[in-house]
Amino acid sequence: MASREEITVCEDEVRSRYSHLEKMTDLVAVWEVALSDGVHKIEFEHGTTSGKRVVYVDGKEEIRKEWMFKLVGKETFTVGASKTKATINIDAVGGFAYEYTLEINGKSLKKYMENRSKTTNTWILSLGGTDYRVVLEKDTMDVWCNGQKMETAGEFVEDGTETHFSVGDYSCCIKAVSSGKRKEGIIHTLIVGDREIPEAVE
């Protein structure tokens, strides 16, 4: 026969297993948002009976409201190192069904990402067994690598500009050259050592 101690341990295990399940049953939406300092995961829990609203950014709780009598509305918070404004809209779509949409800086996530692809370049590369995500913000010429804003040095060269920075022991350079076509504008290329890194599509 099992001792009382063993039975208690079993009950505790079951309870903790169920409380975790209970905790996640209200999860209604998950989004991934690519910003200059990294790709952030936003999770949203909405208790449609209690009105509970919980927002997690990268696994960290940002907002928790236990009892809300109004089941529709919005929750606003910030994401990432640059404190980018994000809003989750909760709309009723008939009966007890709800639709959840994420806005970044006042634009739908889709519009924001389309706009972002015009204003940034992203490269994913592996150096010495470590993966790096390098982002160039074209309007400011800021360079981010794995969530850190890099120290850069810019110089004018014959056919455009070069922005130099280091990643670990590697010297990197982003070359900006005019495409010669008005629609394409300036072409940015990342060169590490003597290797050209292809641009990533996020």
Automatic annotation (TrEMBL):
**Superkingdom as given in the UniProt entry:** Eukaryota
Chief subcellular site? Answer: cytoplasm
InterPro entries assigned to the protein according to its UniProt record, in alphabetical order: FAIM1 (IPR010695), FAIM1_dom_sf (IPR038513)
Q: Which UniProt keywords apply?
A: Apoptosis, Cytoplasm
**Example GO biological process term?**
apoptotic process
State its location(s): Cytoplasm
- Annotated GO CC locations: cytoplasm
Chain's role: Plays a role as an inducible effector molecule that mediates Fas resistance produced by surface Ig engagement in B cells.
Q: Which family does it belong to?
A: Belongs to the FAIM1 family.
Instruction: Report the PANTHER family cross-referenced here.
Output: FAS APOPTOTIC INHIBITORY MOLECULE 1 (PTHR13088:SF3), FAS APOPTOTIC INHIBITORY MOLECULE FAIM (PTHR13088)
What is the protein name stated in its UniProt record?
Answer: Fas apoptotic inhibitory molecule 1
Give the gene name. Faim
